[in-house]
Amino acid sequence: MQNNEIIKPAKYFSELEKSILLALVEKYKYVLECKKSDARTIALKQRTWQALAHEYNSQPSVSLRDFKQLKKCWENIKARTKKIMAHERREKVKRSVSPLLSTHVLGKEKIANMLPEQLYFLQSPPEEEPEYHPDAAAQVFFQESRRSLELLVISSGTWW
């Protein structure tokens, strides 16, 4: 696509266009979903979005889209997915999951797998509480106390 071409805004992304976009985002997810925000990373992300847009527009039966439109669509898909997963988690806690909600977003699990660190707080809670073992708790406390004491001794340079 050349710079002098005018891209007419398409009304909506079709399901086919969204699936193509998801496949391309998955291909470049390590760059696009990187949390760094320094100048080099931002420039790399922009070049990657431009390359992704070029690949996307070379696909048959898609409307021509600018990289900004594709990026915005991806951000909207992520936001909807996070919102639905948070709702499902709240419903799971209430023990009544809505079956209609889980089929709402195209490839929800695929999207969630691309964003594991962002969705960490949305993970499902354990089904049952772990048993309390007083001996294990005491041992952990003892190990932590011993480690703290060793660090104190090492940092002060004093050994008794």
Topology, number of strands: 0
What is the oligomeric state here?
single chain
By DSSP (H or I, 4+ residues per run), the number of helices equals: 7
**What is the helix fraction of residues, given as a range?**
55-70%
**Strand-residue proportion:** under 5%
Low-confidence residue ranges: none
Mean pLDDT: 76
* Rg (CA only): 24 Å
Shape: globular
Sheet with the most strands? none
Give helix and strand order, one letter per element, not per position: HHHHHHH
What structural class is derived from the secondary structure elements? mainly alpha
Span from first to last CA?
74 Å
Per-chain topology:
Layout: H1 15-27, H2 29-32, H3 39-57, H4 67-94, H5 99-102, H6 108-114, H7 134-156
Helix pairs in contact: 3-4
Key phrases:
globular, 61% helix, 160 residues, mainly alpha
